[in-house]
Design a protein that fits this description.
single chain, alpha+beta, 4-stranded antiparallel β-sheet, 3-stranded antiparallel β-sheet, 14 helices, 11% strand, globular
């Protein structure tokens, strides 16, 4: 674990193991305590809600014209400031999950249990914990691949710097470096380590406009079309476990995860996850008809235990889009065509 685990992550793991050791006769269920300690507190709930309020205010102001676009700058800046401590929480949760997963999968004691096929109940408990932790990491990668990559890059960079510092210290202790040489080599490494630790994972949460531009049917469209979407839509934060209805609205995931299950009348059952930029209910929103079969979309919890944030394009906006396309506007004609192709 040297170089890959922060002090906060070590405290969380140590406290979780202490709780597990209090009563060894109880089933092995450390992950519930570890994830709760890493991601859940009243302060985080307040920060998460404030972040959503800032983003929603920014969208509403942006839709009010030129003056509103200038005013929307303030809540956008506030949202960026609120995002930093939340990124640190995500870093802690990911590193705790990875270290715990390594302990469950690479520990010689676990290998001994599996090789000798003893204590089947304990092996089953370990497998259940392993599946829960692995699913947590998979969900974080699906939720925001760029953010997950930034967290991993940060952990690798910190590990390299810490190993470099330890190597210099070992050279000094072995007598190969004197005090001046050790200070000269260690100073830039320690400075880079402090700077990286203060900065945290470098990742900028995509704005609503950036999410919209990445949609398959929005690529190549002008800023005017993006503004049209923002004008006729709104942001909504769903609670974990809530279901999306198949109405005339178009749902676009800005952050978080939505699990979609689809069982056609003829065919196999399908399940998939929608992360940032995922689109749901496009066919029904365009045609006012439900897909044949059974469709179920359920909001999943993010790293902080909150539900996803969705951008909802209203039925009124879709009708206006269709009217502009019918009137002969080439941009909206192409947009409507691309939306029907994707549906």
């Amino acid at each position: 674990m040297e170089g890959l685990l922060s002090a906060r992550g070590l405290r969380i793991l140590d406290a979780g193991c202490e709780v597990g050791l209090e009563d060894p006769s109880k089933p092995l269920r450390l992950w519930g305590n570890l994830s709760r300690d890493a991601t859940r507190s009243m302060l985080l709930r307040v920060l998460t809600m404030c972040l959503f309020v800032c983003r929603r205010a920014s969208v509403r102001m942006y839709a009010q014209g030129s003056l509103g676009r200038w005013l929307a700058y303030l809540p956008r800046v506030a949202a960026q400031m609120l995002q930093r401590p939340l990124n640190q929480v995500l870093l802690s949760s990911v590193e705790v999950a990875m270290e715990y997963l390594m302990g469950l999968t690479t520990s010689p004691y676990v290998e001994w249990l599996q090789d000798n096929d003893v204590w089947a109940v304990l092996i089953w408990e370990i497998q259940a914990e392993t599946s829960a932790v692995a699913q947590f990491l998979i969900d974080r990668e699906v939720e925001a691949p760029e953010r997950y990559s930034a967290v991993q890059s940060y952990r690798v960079a910190m590990a390299v710097l810490r190993q470099q510092r330890l190597f210099v210290e070992s050279l000094f202790e072995s007598g190969m470096l004197d005090t001046a040489e050790q200070s000269q080599l260690a100073h830039p490494i320690e400075a880079a380590e402090r700077r990286l630790e203060l900065l945290g994972p470098v990742w900028k949460a995509p704005s609503l406009g950036e999410v919209l531009r990445q949609l398959p049917f929005m690529r190549g469209q002008s800023q005017q079309v993006v503004d049209f979407f923002i004008k006729y839509g709104h942001l909504a934060m769903l609670s974990k476990g809530s279901r999306l209805s198949q109405d005339r609205q178009l749902y676009i995931v800005q952050s978080g995860i939505v699990k979609v299950s689809y069982t056609p009348d003829l065919g196999a059952h399908q399940e998939y996850f929608l992360g940032a930029g995922g689109v749901f209910n496009l066919y029904t929103a365009l045609t006012a008809e439900e897909l044949p079969g059974a469709t179920d979309a359920v909001a999943q919890g993010n790293a902080l235990g909150k539900g996803p944030v969705l951008f909802c394009l209203s039925a009124k906006g879709l009708r206006h889009l269709s009217a502009l396309a019918t009137a002969g506007d080439p941009a909206y004609q192409q947009l409507e065509l691309d939306m029907h192709r994707l549906a």
